[in-house]
Amino acid sequence: MIKLYDYELSGNCYKLRLLMSFLGVEYESKLIDFYPGNQHKSEGFRQINPLGQLPVVDDDGLVLRDAQAILVYLASKYDASGKWYPRDNPALLGQISQWLAFADGITATASAARLHDALFYTQIDVDAARAGANTLFRILDEHLYFAEEAGQDWICPGDHPTIADIACFPYIMLSEEGGVSRMDYPAIRRWCDRFKRIPGFTVMSGVFPAGPAVSGSIVSAA
Amino acid sequence: MSCHDRILLDDWHAVADLEQLKSGAHLKTELFERVLKVSIQPNGMPAVTLCAEGRDLPVQVKYGFVWTSLGTPDRGIIDIPEALEADRYLVSGGSFPVKVSGLRVVENFLDMGHFPFVHTGWLGEEPHTEVAPYQVELTSDDEIIATECFFHQPVASPTADGGIEVEYKYRVYRPYIVALYKTNPLYPDRMDYIVLFIQPVGPESCVVHNMLCYIKEGMSEPDIRWFMQLIFAQDKPILENQIPRRLPLDPRAETPIRADKVAILYRRWLRDHDVNYGAIPAA
């Protein structure tokens, strides 16, 4: 069985829990005491990941680090439908990769601000982190607005979400814990609600499920 | 707004987890908006300095935390016999900063009504939302005790295997210190114990230190920590979205219901003790 080196409050670990839940893939969580134990920086854990970071998966001896890399691997291996990471569509793969890199930027900004505010990472320049997060959120909000105008629900074109949506979701959803409000990003907020309604969606602490969906007829009447 | 409440200034407050402090040697923190430096001296004992005045404050180490006071403490740190029982763990679930008054955190801790909605699938689930009547009293030691609190919980503890009817007992020791006793799924006649030592950073911000005294049998320390953080991180965004961030003490504010019996007494007790820091005083 897949082993996920996991920490409940990590948005990067949550990305993998989300994908495996969407795909119905069974896995076993190996809990790492990230805070306050700092176990991810321990000698023992650095044998597994020399970077001292979560998440890591071990799938039958294949050990991988980096949430985005693991999303690519798991979707390629376990998604029989090929929709989360369409390997035969170069244009889409390029766009997915672009937004996976963007998600890393969200981690470096919105997640950093959250670490500062919520877990005593006092060395982080929180003003710079929040400003960086707002810059990225503005770009994504505009992108999603124009996608909606074109009849698209997800970050990348097509009628199905991709791992790009999964990669961007957690640290956007947790941004308020780092003092980054989503008030000014209505298209992001609508996308978050759509994301929460994907069958198999699961929460983590700090993320709540969507309310009941408004039925289509009410939307069209309005 | 600085703190003028003698009962708070003359009390002991946890300001650092000793293990955390040792890993970093020193840290800056705040108590009632006063900046403190907490450090480890060469002899291994912690020291707390009030930065603005360069003055050393009284220090005690208890329950794995560094405690200090800005005033002249006229009573000791609370006594917790459960912490000394050999068959219990004594674990910190980690200290967490929360952008809301610590008094709000206490009141949320005392509340069972939110279990099905905030801790869905863990400490409660719909449609089992009713909070049955329970008992509340103010003891001769001036503590608030709530007893006969029963709630059906799907996953009540790190070792729970399926839903059980849980009995809680709540206890408010001091304005910013609150604890609960809760049925242990393996030993129905014994209770696990969780206490929050809340550090008032400002009137609308705090650090929640906690100590978990779970019965060891069938339990591991990482699981205890995981469960505590899982639950607390569900509360955190709810707490940080409470408006106002301070706790209103006017009896007409935030109309209570029957399930809030213990909160009603808590607010009255705060009024009676002239606790205003972190509160909106009654008119």
UniProtKB/TrEMBL annotation, chain A:
<dbReference type="InterPro" id="IPR036282">
    <property type="entry name" value="Glutathione-S-Trfase_C_sf"/>
</dbReference>
<feature type="domain" description="GST C-terminal">
    <location>
        <begin position="89"/>
        <end position="213"/>
    </location>
</feature>
<protein>
    <submittedName>
        <fullName>Glutathione S-transferase family protein</fullName>
    </submittedName>
</protein>
<dbReference type="Pfam" id="PF00043">
    <property type="entry name" value="GST_C"/>
</dbReference>
<dbReference type="InterPro" id="IPR010987">
    <property type="entry name" value="Glutathione-S-Trfase_C-like"/>
</dbReference>
<comment type="similarity">
    <text>Belongs to the GST superfamily.</text>
</comment>
<feature type="domain" description="GST N-terminal">
    <location>
        <begin position="1"/>
        <end position="82"/>
    </location>
</feature>
<dbReference type="InterPro" id="IPR040079">
    <property type="entry name" value="Glutathione_S-Trfase"/>
</dbReference>
<dbReference type="InterPro" id="IPR004045">
    <property type="entry name" value="Glutathione_S-Trfase_N"/>
</dbReference>
<dbReference type="InterPro" id="IPR036249">
    <property type="entry name" value="Thioredoxin-like_sf"/>
</dbReference>
<dbReference type="InterPro" id="IPR004046">
    <property type="entry name" value="GST_C"/>
</dbReference>
<dbReference type="Pfam" id="PF02798">
    <property type="entry name" value="GST_N"/>
</dbReference>
